[in-house]
Amino acid sequence: MTGVRAQYEAFPYPERDPKDEAKRLIGGSPSHPVEIDHFLFGGQRDWSQPFRALVAGGGTGDGLIQLAQVLTSAGKPHDIHYIDLSEASRKIAEARAKARGLEVTFHTGSLLDAADLGTFDYIDCCGVLHHLPEPAEGFRALRAALAPGGGLGFMVYAPYGRSGVYPLQEAFGALFEGLEPKARVASARKVLAKLPAGHPFKRNPHLKDHENGDAGFYDLLLHGQDVAMDVQTLLGLMDETGWELVSFTQPALYDPAPLCELPEGMGARARMALAERLHGTIKSHVGYAVARGEGRAPASAAEGDPVPHLRLGQRDQVTKLLANSRPLPINASGIEMPIRLPPKAARLISAVDGRRRLSEVFAEARMDRDEALPLWQRMEGAFTGIGALHYSEGLR
Ligand SMILES: C[S@@+](CC[C@H](N)C(=O)[O-])C[C@H]1O[C@@H](n2cnc3c(N)ncnc32)[C@H](O)[C@@H]1O
C-alpha cells in the first residue's frame, strides 16, 4: 500500500459522521452546480440534459454530496461517479449518500485511470493533485476523461499561505519514519507543543486544519506527499497537460492593483504571481478549467439577461450596511477587501432571489435599466471578485 493510501485508510479526510447529514449540507467551492454553470457553461447550461460528473479523489464526500444533493433537490438528471484510493473514505462517502438517498456510482481506484470510466461533462478534483507523485500525470489523466465542452473544478494547495507547514512535514517525516499513522499523530502532537511560539507555523493564523481532529492534523503536518504549487507552477502544469484556466473562484485575490502601481505592460500571469507573493496568505488555489484553446469565460451581465445568484452570508446585514452608506467588511484568504457601493445597491441585492432574470431584478428594485445597469456592473466586479455572485439559468 502506498504511503498516501495508507494515510487515508487510517484517517479518511475530512473527518465526517454520516449521521450529521440529517442536520446540515456542507457547501463550498468548487462544485456547487450554480458555480459550475457560471464558470464553465456561461450560466446557460440546460440542466434538463444529462450531466455526467466524476468526483476524483472524493475523500469522505463533501464535494460529492453537495453536487448530488443540489441536482437531486432540483430534479435535474445526473450520473455522478466517485473514485478514491481509500476504501475507508469511500465507506463514509457511501454512507453519507445513502443517508440522503442520493444516487452515486462508487469506485475504489486511482484517478490516473479516470478515462477507463468514460468521459465526463464535469470533473471535481479538490485537494488531490498536489498529493500525487507527479501532479502533471493527474492533470493529464483527468484531461483524458473530459468530454468535449466539459470542464474541471479544482483546488490545489498554494505555498505562501501555508508558511511553516513544509519544514515541519519534513522534520516529522524524518523523525517518524516507520511508525504507523496513528502513532505519528500522537508523537507529532507532543513535539509541536514544545516548539517556540515564534515558529512560522505557530505564527500563521490562517492554518486551522490541525485543530480539526487527527485527520486534519495528519493531513496538514504529517503528509508524506504534499507539493504546494504557486500560481505560475499551476498554470504551467495546465499548459503542459492540455488545460486552460477559466478563472479562480475569487479572482480579486489575484489582483495586485489595489496594493501598488504596476509596471506598464505587465501580463495577466505575472500580475497573478505578483499578487500571490504580495498577499502571502493564499493557502489554496480554487478555480475552474477547460480544454486548452477554448477561451471560455465566466458568465457576465454583458451576455443577455442572465439569472444572478448571490452568496452573501447574512443578506439582511449586508443590505443594512449598504443602505447606511457603510462598506461591507469582506475578508477573503486573510485579505481585507472592503466593498463600497452606493445605498441603492441594497435594493438590487434584496431583489436577487436566484429565480429572477437581471431585467426582473431591476424592475423589482424599481430602477430603470439606464440607472441600474452601471450600478449592477460595479456590483458584478466587486462580488464576482470574491466569489459571491454567479449566474445560472437552468437551476431556477
Ligand atoms: C485531502 S483529501 C480530499 C478529499 C475531498 N476531495 C475533499 O476535498 O474533501 C485527498 C483524497 O485524495 C485521495 N487520493 C490521493 N491520491 C489519489 C489517486 N491517485 N487517485 C484517487 N484518489 C486519490 C485520497 O485517498 C484522499 O481521499
UniProtKB/TrEMBL annotation:
Keyword DNA-binding: no
All residue ranges annotated as the Methyltransferase type domain in the record: 56-152
UniProt xrefs under Pfam families: Methyltransf_12
Alphabetical list of InterPro entries matching this protein: Methyltransf_12, SAM-dependent_MTases_sf
Keywords noted in UniProt: Methyltransferase, Transferase
Gene3D superfamilies: Vaccinia Virus protein VP39 (3.40.50.150)
Segments passing through the bilayer: none
GO BP term, example: methylation
Region (Disordered): 1-21
GO molecular function: methyltransferase activity
Protein name: Class I SAM-dependent methyltransferase
